[in-house]
């Protein structure tokens, strides 16, 4: 017997919460745990641009033959254009190669496993706090995890001096995980000059940035959100990017993302990429096609691309409105504590500063679900559920 000795795994801090939410029979329950975009009606519909691309694919797709290990070529080129913009030297000089991978998670995992197996990089620095699954992914790939400070609870703001101090103690060849934009869970991003400082540190200390880019377009715009990544790509010889289209194309269950390697020159990137492909082959052989075909169809067609950008803008602007409404409604509910920092943050999430006890009360007494760390998915708020959320928060403070 081999299974009797297996220990029960703890529930996932985010997806476990969704299971609890589903089992909750209260009618006015609200899930602000998992990062899923909801529209004003509280739904997560398929984007119009995606539907149109799918209709085209239904007519034109002729085979379900395997893709190559690296996936759809047109998709991989489109990913590079989104990441680096048009005419970036990294692309022109053939220093970047991209492999389609299953979502941001799959991309991070492929990147981590490739690094551990083939390079001296064995340690990765992640922000404290960071997305709950980062540690899980990197530990599964046998990377050693260290943390750099990022957030100051007292000010509800970034602690950039502490970040710089911690990264300054990293060793040559260490990896640094950077959230490209819309930092999860805090919603607090680096400024342009801070990105330059991080680039200087990485260059001086020979650290290798690994960008987790899961929210391009949810902060300030598709190009604006890539600013940090492009600053680093201009400054350092080597970096990696794991990007996801789960959120910005609403393709959550298609599992579509990519891992991109940037090396010092074409010869190095080709060698590294051959090992990325070998890692993929040993994991899932080659990726599924549908998500990549949707994204590449949209990005290759002027009209569909314009439509997608408009839909993305609508999502981004709705979340920004919810931030302001949240702060206002809390005030109307008599909350005197200052929550204005929420309206200054970016992307789907905010760190509310609520304690574990307050989070538990919100769930048990009011059916409002947020992650134990106090992270709130602002993207799950609507005009309709706002009063319920704010009344509940006011009563647990
Ligand atoms: N990185 C971050 C920071 C995320 O928030 C997420 C999704 N919650 C991912 C990666 C993974 O995205 P995907 O669902 O595409 O695997």
UniProtKB/TrEMBL annotation:
Record PROSITE patterns: AA_TRANSFER_CLASS_1
Alphabetized UniProt keyword annotations: Aminotransferase, Pyridoxal phosphate, Transferase
Cofactor(s) essential for the protein: pyridoxal 5'-phosphate
The protein's Enzyme Commission number: 2.6.1.-
Top EC class of this enzyme: transferase
InterPro entries in alphabetical order: Aminotransferase_I/II_large, Asp_trans, NHTrfase_class1_PyrdxlP-BS, PyrdxlP-dep_Trfase, PyrdxlP-dep_Trfase_major, PyrdxlP-dep_Trfase_small
Domain of life from the UniProt record: Bacteria
GO terms classed as biological process: L-phenylalanine biosynthetic process from chorismate via phenylpyruvate
Gene Ontology terms for molecular function: identical protein binding; L-aspartate:2-oxoglutarate aminotransferase activity; L-tyrosine-2-oxoglutarate transaminase activity; pyridoxal phosphate binding
Record family assignment: Belongs to the class-I pyridoxal-phosphate-dependent aminotransferase family.
Assembly and binders: Homodimer.
Protein name in the entry: Aminotransferase
UniProt source species: Shewanella hanedai (Alteromonas hanedai)
């Amino acid at each position: 017997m081999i299974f009797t000795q297996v220990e029960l795994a703890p529930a996932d801090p985010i997806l476990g919460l969704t299971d609890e939410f589903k089992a909750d029979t209260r009618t006015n329950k609200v899930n602000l745990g998992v990062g899923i975009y909801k529209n004003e009606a509280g739904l997560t519909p398929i984007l119009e641009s995606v539907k149109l691309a799918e209709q085209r694919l239904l007519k034109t797709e002729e085979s379900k033959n395997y893709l190559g290990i690296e996936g759809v070529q047109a998709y991989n080129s489109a990913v590079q254009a989104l990441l680096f913009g048009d005419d970036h030297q990294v692309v022109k000089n053939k220093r970047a190669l991209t492999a389609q991978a299953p979502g941001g998670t799959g991309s991070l995992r492929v990147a981590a496993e490739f690094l551990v197996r083939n390079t001296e990089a064995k340690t990765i620095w992640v922000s404290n706090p960071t997305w709950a699954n980062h540690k899980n992914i990197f530990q599964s790939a046998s990377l050693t995890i260290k943390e750099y400070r990022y957030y100051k609870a007292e000010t509800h703001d970034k602690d950039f001096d502490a970040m710089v101090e911690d990264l300054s103690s990293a060793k040559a060849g260490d990896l640094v995980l950077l959230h490209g934009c819309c930092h999860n869970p805090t919603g607090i991003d680096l400024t342009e000059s801070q990105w330059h400082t991080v680039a200087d540190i990485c260059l001086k200390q020979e650290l290798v940035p690994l960008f987790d880019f899961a929210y391009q377009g949810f902060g300030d715009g598709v190009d604006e959100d890539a600013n940090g990544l492009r600053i680093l790509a201009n400054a350092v010889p080597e970096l990696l990017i794991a990007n996801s289209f789960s959120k910005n194309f609403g393709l959550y269950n298609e599992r579509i993302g990519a891992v991109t390697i940037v090396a010092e020159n074409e010869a190095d990137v080709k060698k590294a990429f051959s090992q990325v492909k070998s890692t993929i082959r040993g994991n899932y052989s080659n990726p599924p096609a549908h998500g990549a075909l949707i994204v590449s169809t949209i990005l290759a067609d002027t009209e569909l691309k314009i439509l997608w950008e408009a839909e993305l803008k609508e999502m981004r602007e709705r979340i920004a409105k919810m931030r302001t409404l949240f702060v206002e409604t809390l005030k109307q509910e008599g909350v005197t504590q200052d929550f204005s920092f929420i309206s200054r943050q970016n992307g789907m999430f905010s760190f509310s500063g609520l304690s574990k006890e307050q989070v538990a009360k919100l769930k048990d007494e009011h059916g409002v679900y947020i992650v134990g760390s106090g992270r709130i998915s602002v993207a799950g708020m609507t005009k309709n559920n706002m009063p319920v959320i704010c009344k509940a928060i006011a009563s647990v403070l």
